[in-house]
Amino acid sequence: MAVFTPLSDEQVADFLERYTVGRLQTLKGVPHGTENSTFFVTTDQGEWVLTLFEQGEFEDLPFFVDLLDYLAAQQLPVPGPVHDRDGVALQRLAGRPALLFPRMPGSHPSAPNLTQCAALGDALGRMHQVSQRFTGQRTNPRDLDWLTRRHREVLPYLSDDDQALMRREIADYADAFGGVELPAGAIHGDLFRDNTLYEGDRLGGIIDFYNGCTGELLFDLAIVINDWASDDAGDIDEARYAAILGAYLAHRPLNEQERELWPTMLRMTALRYWLSRLLVIHVDPPAYDITPHDPARFRTLLGRRLEAVPPNSPTPSPEPVLPDGPTTPTTVPMATFD
């Protein structure tokens, strides 16, 4: 259960008095997540999500509030935090920082179809297009500097071959990205399938921005491709890959430098999750009794990205036509490649 700080109906009813969201009807803990306590709240005016922040850098929470406010104002499918009667979003409840959000519709896609992939690429492309104008700043906590510093801590737990692989890869990234300035802006930083919600083929929401930061847009896109467009063996599913990139590139074409570094960025983001999961198991165990994610998945992905380059470097495509609702079109937008 991912409720680390239990709440009573009375506590939440009193908390809701700060807002104009109605009276509490039901309160239910959400049984997933690894860091925060999350509750579904139903009032006589709607459905909401209440999050208590249990760990992490609490001083970063104003950045997340400002980012979500900004993206919601740009009509992106994100849950803009609810502000209280005095216009304040960030609160405290049960001794923890707390935020209240509207509950976004839908469920997580375990095996996204091509229309769902295109909808995700479209939303991410629009987000990256506008996020370059967002003025907030938070350094990417999982960037190349982090990889360089933290990888040494897991080397004693790896085989000789994996130690050599990790060292070699990080040296390659330093050579490839050193002194390079790629297009940057606010990014999600962890846009896996379970951080999206769909109603049929329609993207209902992008959630959990708590890895959000300002960084290279290509980094965000590579995380998406490694999760959304990889099959069980770790190989790229070319149809999903093309659907995501075709929709994305209609809003934000990659420049020449980004296209050149694309295969390397796919490798670096695979290693980023291999390393973070190794750290959780061997160095930084979670604060609560939860099952860590298996690092082996991203070790496999890294190996496959080394063995097979992605299906050509992505180039711009015509603007895709996406469904207005949960339909299944006979064709989906695809990227064109050079």
From TrEMBL:
Residue ranges with Polar residues bias: 327-338
- Catalyzed reaction equations: L-homoserine + ATP = O-phospho-L-homoserine + ADP + H(+)
What are the residue boundaries of the Aminoglycoside phosphotransferase domain, all occurrences included? Answer: 26-253
Q: In which pathway does it act?
A: Amino-acid biosynthesis; L-threonine biosynthesis; L-threonine from L-aspartate: step 4/5
If you read the UniProt record, what top EC class would you report for this enzyme, in one word?
transferase
One of its Pfam families is APH
InterPro entries reported for this sequence: Aminoglycoside_PTrfase, Homoserine_kinase_II, Kinase-like_dom_sf, Pseudomonas-type_ThrB
Which CDD domains does its entry note? HomoserineK_II (cd05153)
Output the superkingdom of the source species. Bacteria
Biased-composition ranges for Pro residues?
A: 311-323
- Give UniProt keywords alphabetically: Amino-acid biosynthesis, ATP-binding, Kinase, Nucleotide-binding, Threonine biosynthesis, Transferase
- Could you say which EC number(s) this protein's record lists? 2.7.1.39
Q: What GO terms are given for molecular function? A: kinase activity
Record region (Disordered): 307-338
Q: Which NCBIfam families match?
A: PRK05231.1, thrB_alt
Q: Which family does it belong to?
A: Belongs to the pseudomonas-type ThrB family.
Protein name in UniProt: Homoserine kinase
This protein's species is: Salinicola acroporae
